[in-house]
Design goal:
Elements (H helix, E strand, L loop, with lengths): L7 E5 L4 H12 L3 E6 L2 H13 L3 E6 L5 H15 L4 E4 L16 H28 L5 E8 L1 H4 L5 H21 L4 E8 L5 H14 L3 H10 L9 H12 L10 E4 L9
Parallel strand pairs: 1-2, 1-4, 2-3, 4-5, 5-6, 6-7
Helix pairs in contact: 1-2, 1-9, 3-4, 4-6, 7-8
Bound molecules: NADP nicotinamide-adenine-dinucleotide phosphate.
The site of NADP nicotinamide-adenine-dinucleotide phosphate has 28 residues, from helix 1, strand 5 and helix 7.
């Protein structure tokens, strides 16, 4: 089934993990995809993967910490395709250190806020302006949050704050642009098997002096489905939220976590 034929999708952090899987899923549904990341090599491999499967994809180098890169990225999508139907604002810094709140440096705070939160606001700003000026007007945006943004995480206060902030940005903007045909929702991701999660588990394993496998087993005990998610399982939710199947959904925080937070909600 090609639910998104003729549509244009922008995916930040599209070179790896959840972003890669989502880019492939958008293309599978017929959308033309523009991927963004800082490293071009992995992005080129994803673009090639999409092209081999008969889809259309380009990779653009963009650092989400750079306001000018973000503006240029959205303009590039617009210039190339003449419209922007979907945006998946998914990139986030994978270089977060584990620190208690008082040990976080001001530099680290500012770096994470810029890469993870201000970036999502800036992406939305330019994407919304593009979606408002096109005919027919409108589009769908999905922003990646995390279960850590629902309840906070020890040793990850700033990362958690950025992910909570994304939920507030999503809900505010969703109300503001609903009448202009722009739907804005959030993916609240649980644990997914990606390089970011592997690196987070390696850091925890290093700090506790135990093997990563043991950390993964501990994680899985808190997940009712008993396993880490596959990035493709997050991508399904993202594409669905962008599709007309979700035409009456906006301002929603879609939790995809194998039931991890079910007992707390
Ligand atoms: N995996 C999980 O368990 C999990 C759980 C909850 C939430 N999430 C969220 O899911 C999203 C995707 O994470 P993932 O697990 O799929 O990670 P991943 O596989 O490590 O991919 C991260 C992607 O973001 C890009 N990126 C990182 N920093 C960037 C920057 N400053 N500018 C532009 N691109 C940047 C990376 O490419 P470059 O490094 O080349 O730029 C890469 O394409 C993130 O928002 C993350 O917080 C993940």
């Amino acid at each position: 089934m090609h639910r998104l034929t003729g549509k244009v999708a922008l995916v930040t952090g599209g070179s790896s993990g959840i972003g890669r899987a989502s880019a492939v899923a958008f293309a599978h549904e017929g959308a033309k995809v523009m991927l963004a990341a800082r490293g071009i090599d992995r992005g080129e491999r994803v673009a090639h993967e999409v092209q081999v499967a008969g889809g259309e994809a380009q990779i653009v180098r963009a650092d989400m910490s750079s306001p000018s890169d973000i503006e240029a990225l959205v303009e590039r999508a617009w210039d190339l395709h003449g419209r922007l139907d979907f945006a998946f604002n998914n990139a986030a810094s994978t270089e977060a250190k584990l620190s208690r709140t008082a040990d976080v440096t001001e530099e680290e705070f500012d770096r994470l806020m810029a890469a993870n939160l201000k970036s999502v606001w800036l992406c939305m700003k330019h994407e919304i302006l593009a979606m408002l000026r096109q005919q027919p007007q409108g589009g769908a945006i999905v922003n990646t949050s995390s279960v850590n943004g629902l309840g906070g995480a020890r040793m990850g206060a700033v990362y958690s704050a950025t992910k909570s902030g994304i939920l507030a940005l999503t809900k505010s903007a969703a109300q503001e642009y609903a009448r202009e045909g722009i739907r804005i929702n959030a993916l609240v991701a649980g644990a997914f098997q990606t390089p970011m999660l592997v690196s987070a588990m390696d850091s925890i394993a290093g700090a506790q002096g135990i093997a990563r496998d043991a950390i993964e087993a501990q994680y899985c005990q808190f997940i009712p489905q008993g396993r880490i998610g596959r990035p493709e399982e997050a991508a399904e939710a993202v594409v669905w939220l962008c599709s007309d199947a979700a035409s009456y959904m906006t301002g929603h925080s879609m939790i995809v976590d194998g039931g991890m937070t079910a007992s707390m909600r």
